[in-house]
Amino acid sequence: MRKLSITAMVVLILLLVLDWISTLKGLLAGRCETNPLILVLARHIGIAEAVTAIKVLDAVIVIGFYKILKRHPEYMRAGFFMIATIDALYAAVVINNFS
Questions:
Q1: pLDDT digit string (tens) for 2-58?
Q2: CB distance 12 to 86 below 8 Å
Q3: From 49, 54, 59, 83, which residue has the greatest number of CB atoms within 10 Å?
Q4: Contact predicate 22/98, CB 8 Å
Q5: Is 45 exposed, middle or buried (0-12, 13-18, 19+ CB in 10 A)?
Q6: What are the angstrom distances between the C-alpha of 39 and each of 15, 28, 55?
Q7: Which one, of 11, 29, 1, lies nearest residue 84 by Cα?
Q8: Where are the alpha helices (DSSP H) in the chain?
Q9: Alpha-carbon distance 16 to 68, whole Å?
Q10: What is the pLDDT of residues 49-95, one digit of tens each?
Q11: Cα(40)–Cα(37) distance, rounded to whole angstroms?
Q12: Per DSSP, which regions of the chain are E strands?
C-alpha cells in the first residue's frame, strides 16, 4: 500500500505541474482564472505569480501529507484512496484546461 500511496502522490505532483502549465497557457490565451484564492493573491503579486505560489503551496501540502502518512502507516490505505480521488478530480481539471 505504501508504494501505491507514493505513486498516487507523485501523480498528484505531476498533475499540479500540468495544471500550472495549462493555467498559464490559458491565461495567455485570454481565459480567466476562477479560483478565488488565486484571484485575491493576484491583486497583490500578479496572476502568474499567484498561480505559481498556490501550486507550490499545493505541492508542499502533498509532501507534508506524505510525511504524516509515513509516520502513521495505519492511515496509509485511507491516504491512498483520498489522494487517488484527488488525482482523478485534478486530471479532469487539467483535461479541461488543455481543451
A1: 787 788 889 999 999 999 999 999 999 999 888 999 999 999 999 999 999 999 999
A2: yes
A3: 83
A4: yes
A5: exposed
A6: 21, 16, 13
A7: 11
A8: 2-28, 36-45, 47-71, 76-98
A9: 20
A10: 999 999 999 999 988 988 888 888 888 888 888 889 999 998 999 99
A11: 5
A12: none
Inter-helix orientation angle 2-28/47-71, to 10°: 180
Q: Is the pLDDT of residue 1 over 80?
A: no
Residue 74 is given by DSSP the state G
Length of the chain: 99
Q: What is the DSSP letter of 13?
A: H
Residue whose C-alpha cell reads 491583486 in the numeric block: 43
pLDDT at 66: 86
Alpha carbons 44 and 50: distance in angstroms, whole number: 9
- Tracing cell 488543455 back to the chain, one arrives at 98
Report the amino acid identity of residue 42: A
